[in-house]
Amino acid sequence: MKDTHTVFVSVVIEPNEDGYLASVPGLQGAFAEGDTIEDAIFNCIDVVKLIAS
After folding, report:
1. Which pTM was predicted?
2. In Å, how far are 13, 17, 44 from 35, measured between CA atoms?
3. How do residues 5-33 score in pLDDT, each as one tens digit?
4. So what's the pLDDT on residue 19?
5. What angle do CA 9, 52, 47 make, to 5 degrees?
6. In whole angstroms, how far apart are CA 13 and each of 2, 9, 31, 34, 48?
7. What whole-number distance in Å separates Cα of residue 24 and Cα of residue 3?
């Protein structure tokens, strides 16, 4: 069985020239871009998973 964890983080969304930037304050390197707000959030979640593993 795979260990799973639930973590709640605050994600800051900012518009930029190419779409949106999502970042997690206080977690160095946790940011990502996306064409839509949803894309930026999902991409940022992937980055957070990589940092946390």
Report:
1. 0.83
2. 12, 10, 13
3. 788 889 999 999 989 999 999 999 999 99
4. 96
5. 70
6. 31, 13, 10, 10, 15
7. 23
Both ends of the chain: CA-CA distance in Å? 17
Check: CB of residue 21 under 8 Å from CB of residue 35: no
* Residues pairing with 16 in the sheet: 19
Please give the Cα distance from 34 to 52 (Å, whole number): 21
- What 8-state DSSP symbol labels residue 25? T
What are 9's strand-pairing partners?
none
- Measured from the Cβ of residue 26, the count of other Cβ atoms closer than 10 Å reads 8
